[in-house]
Design a protein that fits this description.
The complex is a heterodimer of chains A (249) and B (160). With 249 residues, chain A is mainly α. Chain A has helices spanning 27-46, 56-75, 84-100, 115-137, 152-199, 210-247; strands at residues 12-14, 17-18, 21-22, 25-26. Chain A has a two-stranded antiparallel ribbon with strand order 1-4. A two-stranded antiparallel sheet of chain A has the order 2-3. Chain A is globular. In chain A, 35% of the residues are buried. Chain B has a domain at 2-112. The chains are: A mainly alpha (249), B mainly alpha (160). The A-B interface holds A 5, 8-10, 12, 18, 21-26, 28-29, 32-33, 35-36, 39-40, 43-44, 46-47, 50-52, 54, 58, 61-62, 65-66, 84-86, 88-89, 92-93, 111, 113-117, 119-121, 124, 178, 182 and B 1-4, 6, 8-18, 20-21, 23-25, 27-30, 32-33, 35-40, 42-43, 46.
């Protein structure tokens, strides 16, 4: 019986090395590439010939783009629209990785179930936030961590806490996505093994496998929901962090 | 968990993530989304333009409607005045013709009265002449005098 963790194994497809670093093309890379190809196809088809009255594909891409723009409008304000392409890229890439990884039978791999990938994405957000914050406010950006109208001792104390919490943001962002994806896939695999184990009960074959199968169907629906919600949460938190950098509260 | 085997999974994934995300951001999203944003902006402009055009047209229609109602009221007022004028004129004309008819009738009446009076006078004159002649004859017969016709006439006139 397959170990539930086996689905997260990174298998090298083509070994590569650049400047002493192992950058082999793996199944993780392959599924990121599939996600990229899917998103590209979706976007190129949707914006092939933009019309005032959109067709189906254009309406779908517009819906997603408008969703991200509205999120930025609400959480950042008018200046947030400049970052719509970045937040859109993050959102749609995470969404594609999450959803494609749920496809059964084809040995799908979920890159977002790896903390290396989610941390990479979170660092893109974090670095952007730092660059935007310092570019706009200079050293005044540190005022973000200083509580308004408090004494110097309490202020310094809160400053340290706020600063540490700021530094922990990429990790919480990365771990939230990675943990959600990993937990969901483990659960699906565990109930999948239950189906096999109970269904192969010799005296009464198949019958007892039905219950865990039903659970697995329900869990799959739940995982689709989680895949979408976590992509949204990732993009939402990224825009909230951007808001800090742009508006300093 | 394979995820924490960082020595083997970190760099291969992060390196390819960097490559693919760069391609996605610069090669796909940066190329396609501005096109979409442009057409969405155009649509918003068109809709708001159409809405304001519709508002202008509605305002114009409202103005025409108001003018129509004002014109309507004015002509109704004019018609009412014209009717009143005509009525007054007709009343005046009938009054005039009535007065004229009254006047001519009165004139005829007066003429007739005058004629009657003349006839009465003539009749009375004839009667007086006859009375005077009778009186002259009676006096001549009674007294044998011969009073003149004029004296008889004067006497008759004095008594009647």
């Amino acid at each position: 019986m397959a170990n539930p963790m086996e689905q997260f194994a990174v298998e090298t497809i083509k070994p590569l090395e650049v400047a002493g670093y192992d950058v082999s093309f793996t199944n993780s890379s392959l599924w990121m590439l599939i996600a990229l190809a899917t998103v590209s196809a979706f976007l190129f088809v949707g914006t092939w010939r933009p019309q005032l009255v959109p067709g189906r594909w254009q309406a779908a891409t517009e819906y997603l783009y408008d969703f991200v723009r509205k999120m930025l409008d609400e959480n950042v304000g008018p200046e947030g629209r400049r970052f719509a392409p970045l937040i859109f890229s993050i959102f749609i890439f995470v969404l594609a990785c999450n959803l494609l990884g749920l496809i059964p039978w084809i040995h799908a791999f979920t890159p977002t179930s790896h903390i290396s990938v989610t941390l990479g994405l979170a660092l893109i957000v974090f670095v952007t936030v730092c660059v935007v914050g310092f570019a706009r406010h200079g050293l005044h950006f540190f005022a973000l961590f200083w509580p308004h109208g408090s004494g110097i001792v309490l202020g310094a104390f809160v400053f340290v806490i706020e600063f540490l919490s700021f530094l922990s943001r990429p990790f919480t962002l990365a771990i939230r996505l990675f943990a959600n994806m990993t937990a969901g896939h483990v659960l699906l695999k565990v109930f999948g093994t239950f189906v096999v184990a109970l269904g192969s009960f010799g005296a009464l074959p198949y019958v007892f496998g039905i219950l865990p199968l039903g659970v697995n169907i329900a869990l799959t629906a739940l995982e689709v929901l989680i895949a979408v919600v976590q992509a949204y949460v990732f993009a939402l938190l990224a825009s909230l962090y951007l808001n800090d950098a742009i508006n300093l509260h | 968990m394979p995820q924490f085997d960082f020595a083997h999974v970190f760099w291969p994934q992060v390196a390819w993530l960097a490559v693919f995300f760069a391609v996605l951001y610069f090669g796909v999203v940066r190329l396609t989304l501005p096109k979409l944003g442009k057409v969405m902006g155009e649509r918003e402009d068109k809709i708001s333009g159409d809405l304001s055009a519709a508002k202008v047209a509605k305002d114009a229609a409202d103005e025409v409607d108001a003018r129509y109602h004002a014109d309507m009221n004015a002509s109704r007022e004019d018609a009412r005045k014209a009717i009143a004028d005509a009525k007054a004129k007709a009343a005046k004309a009938s009054e005039k013709s009535l007065a004229k008819a009254t006047a001519s009738a009165e004139a005829e009446l007066a003429e007739a009265e005058a004629r009657i009076a003349a006839a009465v006078d003539a009749a009375q004159g004839a009667l007086r002449d006859a009375a005077a002649e009778s009186a002259q004859a009676i006096v001549a017969k009674l007294t044998g005098g011969e009073p003149t016709l004029d004296a008889a006439k004067a006497s008759v006139a004095a008594h009647f």
